[in-house]
Every structure is written in structure tokens, then in C-alpha cells.
Design goal:
By secondary structure, the protein is mainly α. It has one domain. Helices cover 74% and strands 0% of the residues. The protein has eight helices and no strands. Helix 3 packs antiparallel against helix 4 and helix 4 crosses helix 8. The longest helix has 30 residues. The radius of gyration is 16 Å and the shape is globular. The termini are far apart.
Length: 176
């Protein structure tokens, strides 16, 4: 366990170690994170974070609210990495690929462990955008301005896609 890559075989201790590194020292984490190495471990890391988010969201709201929020978060993590990669490559000729982009976004999902907190959760989402920005600089080898534009473009485009797919009326309660 090197702290820069989650490995499910390290168990809960490995998850906590990587989570703390992403949250408390993201610049170092993304500097050490390999841009390749498969989708499995980063997606398992994101899945664990998402399950905790879902369960804790149920605890502070209700099942319907938790299901709807979980669905929207899932859509963001499905559309987000692809849109980010396209923005980086087509706007700025970024050097990264989809694998690296998905990996950085999966680790940015560590903020889901805090996003369930009523009223304060918005800051966790904002921090997630910051983590995506940092990872984008490293994975796509972009300067700060280009990474910021790519991250903001991704947020806007992913939001538009979600609104288009669901319809404006269904964004607050997309499923139930």
C-alpha cells in the first residue's frame, strides 16, 4: 500500500489511508497516482464512497431523497469523466486518456463521504471539483488555467446533459 492507489486487498485500512491522502493532501496524491493501471481499484474506491454516501443520506433524510440524490450523483460520474476527457483533448490538446480521467474522477468521489451532511454537503461537492481540477492538471498535463476551464466546462456540459436527459422538472426528483 503506497497511499497513491487504492487496492481492495488492503481492506478498510487501505481505503481510509487513500481517502485521507486524497482529502488532506490532494496535490501529492495526484502527483503520485498512476494515470494507468486499470479501472477496477478506482471504481471500487468510488463504489465504497458512493455506498457510504447513500446509506448516510438515508440516515439524514429519507429513502426517496437518498435514491434520487444517488441517481444524480451516479449520472455525474457516468457523464463527467467522458466529458472532461473530451474537453481536455479537444479544447487544449491534453495528453491524458479516458482511463486516467476516470481514475482521477473516481478518487475525487472521495468527497461523497462528506457530501451527505445537510447544508454543508455542498462544500464537499465544491471540493470535489477542486480535486478534479488538480487531477486534470496532472493526468492531461495542462496548466492551471486550462485545467480550470476544462473542469468548469465539464460541470456546465454535464449539468446540461442531465437536465436534457431528465427534463427540467425531473432534476429534483428524477426517479421517485
Amino acid at each position: 500500500m503506497n497511499g497513491a492507489e487504492f487496492d481492495f486487498r488492503d481492506g478498510p485500512k487501505g481505503f481510509v489511508t487513500v481517502w485521507k491522502k486524497v482529502i488532506l493532501d490532494p496535490w501529492e496524491f495526484y502527483h503520485e497516482m498512476p494515470s494507468s493501471g486499470g479501472f477496477g481499484n478506482p471504481l471500487i474506491f468510488l463504489g465504497i464512497s458512493a455506498i457510504f454516501y447513500f446509506l448516510l443520506r438515508i440516515a439524514v433524510s429519507d429513502l426517496v431523497d437518498a435514491v434520487n440524490a444517488f441517481f444524480l450523483v451516479g449520472l455525474a460520474y457516468i457523464f463527467g469523466p467522458g466529458v472532461l476527457m473530451l474537453a481536455c483533448q479537444y479544447l487544449f490538446e491534453g495528453k491524458g486518456d479516458y482511463e486516467g480521467t476516470l481514475r482521477l474522477c473516481s478518487y475525487a468521489g472521495s468527497t461523497l463521504m462528506l457530501a451527505w451532511i445537510p447544508y454543508l454537503g455542498i462544500f464537499a461537492y465544491l471540493y470535489s471539483f477542486y480535486l478534479v481540477f488538480l487531477g486534470t492538471q496532472k493526468v492531461h498535463k495542462l496548466d492551471a488555467a486550462k485545467a480550470a476551464i476544462a473542469t468548469l466546462s465539464t460541470i456546465v456540459v454535464a449539468t446540461i446533459i442531465v437536465i436534457f436527459v431528465l427534463g427540467e422538472d425531473r432534476v429534483r426528483r428524477p426517479l421517485l
